[in-house]
Amino acid sequence: MSGGNFTLDGGFWGVIAAVQTPGAPYLWVTLTPTNTVVVWWALSETSWRLQATTNLLATGSVWADCPPPYPSNATSLYYVESPPTGKKFYRLRQP
The whole model's pTM is what? Predict the structure, then answer.
């Protein structure tokens, strides 16, 4: 289907996204060329725990911890995993 200023293509899409928690460090998410999901945040923010959910609900989502330890490089802490089937959302939470 197409026309005007839009095009609609059929198919299946997965969603991998960061959910920004107010007051939390900024969180980045990317899908790498080697087909892994990398989630990272500032190295200085070691007191935050990464969590994930597959469903964002208006009445409250069930968030599960992504198990530490989180590796680091010179600037970031990060978490790497295989891409999910379907949707997955990540956030940072301070215990």
Answer: 0.75
Asked whether the beta carbons of 83 and 52 are under 8 A apart, the reply is no
pLDDT tens column, 24-44? 899 998 888 998 899 999 999
Q: SS3 of 82, please?
A: coil
> How would you class 50 by CB atoms within 10 Å of its CB: exposed for 0-12, middle for 13-18, buried for 19 or more?
buried
Q: Supply φ then ψ for residue 12, to 5 degrees.
A: -120, 135
Q: Show the domain range for 48.
A: 15-93
E strand spans, the chain? 2-3, 6-7, 15-18, 28-31, 37-42, 49-53, 64-65, 76-81, 87-93
What's the CATH code of the domain at 39? 2.60.40
